Every structure is written in structure tokens, then in C-alpha cells.
Amino acid sequence: MAAPPRLEKITPGNFETAIALKVHPDEDHLVAPVVTSLAEAYVHPDVAWPRLILDGDRIVGFLMAFLGIDFTGDGTGTDTRSGLWRLNIAAGQQGRGYGRFAVRAVAAEIRHRGGTRLTACRHPGEEGPEDLYLGLGFRLTGETSGDQCVGELELTSALTCWTNHMQPGGKRSVRCRCAMPGCVRRPCPRRTRSNC
Ligand SMILES: CC(C)(COP(=O)(O)OP(=O)(O)OC[C@H]1O[C@@H](n2cnc3c(N)ncnc32)[C@H](O)[C@@H]1OP(=O)(O)O)[C@@H](O)C(=O)NCCC(=O)NCCS
Prior knowledge:
Strand order of the largest sheet: 1-2-3-4-5-7-6
CATH topology: Aminopeptidase
Bound molecules: coenzyme A
Oligomer: single chain
Low-confidence stretches: 160-196
Structural class: alpha+beta
Radius of gyration: 16 Å
Largest sheet: 7 strands, mixed
């Protein structure tokens, strides 16, 4: 059985390949280039969580999460959120489940840090990746961030259960550790023991 995709930190060794990663040219307006995200990660090191998505030895995508930001930016610290900041799946690698994996991996990281919801902003309408988020259970909050719509995913669903078995770095646990009824202290019903 093929190993699942995994996340890796950006290093001097993979940096050039990382910034060479490109989405389709007609998607360039939907997401910033990887090099821009890495520059932002450099100036926001406390909240930015950039990772490459690898399948075997192939770099197939890039994600960047934000972890614990003052979302409204009003300085009160009353609305701290974590979520998906950037997601770039390489043009030739789209439609193979890597985007879904990336969202689940960020969900796992947020859960690991004690969070219970994942925030993601996206361009509205058909040109944006609406189906990806809706298919994973996101709901629109009615808020906007710049020209993007804000969506949220409660991390208490079956998605959370699955992500506990697919943690970043390929680390997988045999037993489900989520709070989902029926999953505690026994293998997750959504994955076989061998997969976990
Ligand atoms: C959108 C994107 C991240 C999806 O990644 P992906 O690996 O191709 O997606 P997956 O293969 O995991 O697909 C998961 C689901 O998302 C939906 N989806 C995938 N790409 C989509 C797109 N471009 N538009 C709308 N829905 C899409 C599909 O419904 C799919 O469900 P299905 O398997 O039941 O058909 C990727 O196409 C991409 O990087 N696009 C350009 C940049 C971008 O829009 N980034 C997101 C910024 S918020």
C-alpha cells in the first residue's frame, strides 16, 4: 500500500523546489506565490506555519496555516483564530486529493494545539475552491476578509477523527484519540487498523 502524503518543513535543501511550485496560470489570482508566503512567514514567525506537501519524494503542494492570530486585528485579543492561510497544489498534481489532505493536516495541527475550529478565507463564487471547503464541512460565517469570504470548520466531526490518524510528518496512531462518540479507545471505524 502506498504511503500517505506528508508534510515537511521548508529547508535550505528544498527551498528552490518549493518556490518553483506553481498553480495553473489562470489560478494565479486565487493564491499568492509560495515565495510571497515564505516572506510573510519570515516576518510573522510566531503565527505562520508553512509546510510542503510531499507524496513520496515529489513535492506536490504547499500550505501555510496561521496559528492563534488576533483575527479582527483590533488588539483586544478577544477573537483569536487559527486556520488555513495559503494552499497551492501544483498544476500537474491537482484533483488527486492533496488539497483535502492539506486541510485535514492543518485541522490536525490545530487540534493538537487545543483548537476547536479551523478558519479559511476564499474567493467567492465558482472560480474559488468552494467545493473543496463545502465538501469538508465548512460553513460560511458571513464575514469577509478583504475580498474573500470567511469559512469555518468545527473540529469535532468525523474529519477530526480521520486527521488523528494522518498527522503531519506521516506520524500515524493506531488508536483513535478524538472525542468523537464511538471512536475513543478503539480503532477508528473510518480507517482499518492496518491503515492506521
Ligand atoms: C483548490 C485546490 C487547493 C484543490 O486542491 P486539489 O488537490 O486539486 O483538490 P482535491 O483533489 O483534494 O479535491 C477535493 C475536492 O475539492 C474540490 N475541488 C478541487 N479543486 C477545486 C477547484 N479548483 N475548484 C473547486 N473545487 C475544487 C473537488 O470537489 C474535490 O472533490 P471530489 O474529489 O469529490 O471531486 C487546488 O486546485 C489549488 O491549489 N488551486 C489553485 C489555488 C487555490 O485556489 N488555492 C486555494 C486558495 S483558498
